[in-house]
């Protein structure tokens, strides 16, 4: 089974990070929370402490099919300035593996150089961080193997988008519909048919 990594450091944005872990695991997608702090215990910007699955220095990249980077400040900047993460992003992009980020997280992809000429989004007001990317106004932007989303309010849609990219539309719909009530299911189907 393929597995994915979600990068964590102190001050991460908990909704953006933990929603991905929760929903990908609901879809039977293996995802490891990887700490870059040198310790497994990582604390979010609102004081939520989680225990990462592993430390970045211990992982084997060949075990992973993609990377997910949450936002949160200064977490996103700390991740952006971590050479190990930048090297992973570059390697995974070169191998056409999934490279994804939400909110302020796309600044990491930009610094790694993988957004040059590519479509991407970032948290509103941070567009200058995207350097030479084609900055879009979309909520979520998919450009081949790169997926970016604008902010915490899109955490759930970002998770559904990742599930669809990894496992297909059927699995995405199953997870989406398992997490919403009947009226919302009808609304979603109606919107898809417009």
Automatic annotation (TrEMBL):
The entry's protein name is DJ-1/PfpI family protein
InterPro entries found in the cross-reference section: Class_I_gatase-like, DJ-1, DJ-1/PfpI, Prot/Nucl_acid_deglycase
PANTHER family annotated for this entry? PARKINSON DISEASE PROTEIN 7 HOMOLOG, PROTEIN/NUCLEIC ACID DEGLYCASE DJ-1-RELATED
Record's NCBIfam families? not_thiJ (TIGR01383)
Q: What is the lineage of its organism?
A: Bacteria, Bacillati, Bacillota, Tissierellia, Tissierellales
- Identify the Gene3D superfamilies for this entry: 3.40.50.880
Give the DJ-1/PfpI domain ranges: 4-164
An example of a Pfam family matching this protein is DJ-1_PfpI
Protein origin, superkingdom: Bacteria
Biological source species: Parvimonas parva
């Amino acid at each position: 089974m393929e597995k994915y990594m979600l990068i964590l450091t102190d001050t991460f944005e908990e909704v953006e990070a933990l929603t991905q872990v929760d929903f990908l695991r609901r879809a039977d997608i293996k995802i490891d929370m990887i700490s870059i702090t040198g310790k497994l215990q990582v604390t979010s910007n609102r004081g939520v402490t989680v225990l990462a699955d592993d430390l970045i220095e211990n992982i084997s990249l060949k075990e992973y099919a993609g990377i997910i980077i949450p936002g949160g400040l200064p977490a996103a900047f700390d991740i952006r300035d971590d050479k190990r993460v930048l090297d992973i992003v570059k390697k995974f992009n070169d191998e056409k593996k999934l490279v994804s980020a939400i909110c302020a997280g796309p600044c990491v992809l930009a610094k790694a150089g993988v957004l040059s000429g590519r479509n991407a989004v970032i948290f509103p007001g941070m567009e200058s961080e995207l350097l030479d990317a084609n900055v879009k106004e979309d909520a979520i932007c998919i450009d081949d193997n790169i997926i970016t989303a604008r902010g915490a309010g899109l955490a759930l849609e970002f998770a559904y988008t990742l599930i669809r990219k990894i496992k297909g539309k059927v699995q995405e719909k199953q997870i989406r519909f398992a997490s919403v009530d009947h009226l919302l299911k009808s609304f979603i189907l109606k919107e898809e048919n417009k």
